[in-house]
Amino acid sequence: MAQHTDERTAPTTGAGAAERTDDHSGGSVGDLFAEVTADIQRLFRQEAELARTEVREEFGKAGKAAGMMAAAGVAGALVVLFLSLSLMFALGNVLDLGWAALIVTGAWALIGGALFLLGRGRLRAFSPKPTKTLDSLKEDASWARHPRT
Fold first, then answer.
1. What is the pLDDT of residues 15-52, one digit of tens each?
2. How far apart are CA 17 and CA 143, in angstroms?
3. Are 130 and 51 in contact (CB under 8 A)?
4. CA 106 to CA 84: how far, in whole Å?
5. Largest CA-CA distance found in the chain, in angstroms, rounded
6. DSSP assignment string, the chain
7. Nearest-10 crossing angle of helices 29-92, 131-145
8. pTM to 2 decimals?
9. pLDDT tier for residue 92 given thresholds of 50, 70 and 90
10. What's the number of CA atoms in the CB half-sphere (13 Å) around residue 103?
11. What is the pLDDT of residues 115-141, one digit of tens each?
């Protein structure tokens, strides 16, 4: 009695499965569906990794901008401190010491203003949306609706 091997009972794992996935002409609908499902899963994993990388980069930029804003805050506090010292020395002793403190205050004001403007510019450029990933997902969805051969 000859044994008949049905494709449905053939092993779905191991070397036999790997050989079958390379040959699309003899694959069953179930095999093709499994292969498409695996490809879609791999695509979504890759897209998720791209999104994570993109968001990580954007938050890194935001962290640097926040650091600049904090430095601008410190510079602002120093402006208040030196301005207070300047006024104190200017009123107490209308001589060189007061004017020197005023010059230092002016320098800190310029530094604080520059850091603030740099930080504000970088925060405006911050985009938490993973735009590259969203564009890629739109392209994938378009391809899935209208596949090109």
1. 444 444 455 555 788 888 888 888 888 988 898 888 88
2. 27
3. yes
4. 12
5. 119
6. ------GGGS-SSSHHHHHHHH--SS--HHHHHHHHHHHHHHHHHHHHHHHHHHHHHHHHHHHHHHHHHHHHHHHHHHHHHHHHHHHHHHHH-TTHHHHHHHHHHHHHHHHHHHHHHHHHHHHHH---S-HHHHHHHHHHHHHHHS---
7. 160
8. 0.37
9. low
10. 5
11. 999 999 888 887 777 777 777 878 877
Which string of b and e fits 56-65 if b means at least 16 CB within 10 Å? eebeeebeeb
Rounded distance between C-alpha atoms, residue 141 and residue 70, angstroms: 43
Query: What type of residue is 100?
Result: A
CA distance readout (Å), 71 to 67, 107, 128, 136 = 6, 14, 23, 38
Residues in the chain: 149
Distance, in Å, from the CA atom of 109 to the CA atom of 73, rounded to the nearest integer, reads 11
CB of 133 closer than 8 Å to CB of 97: no
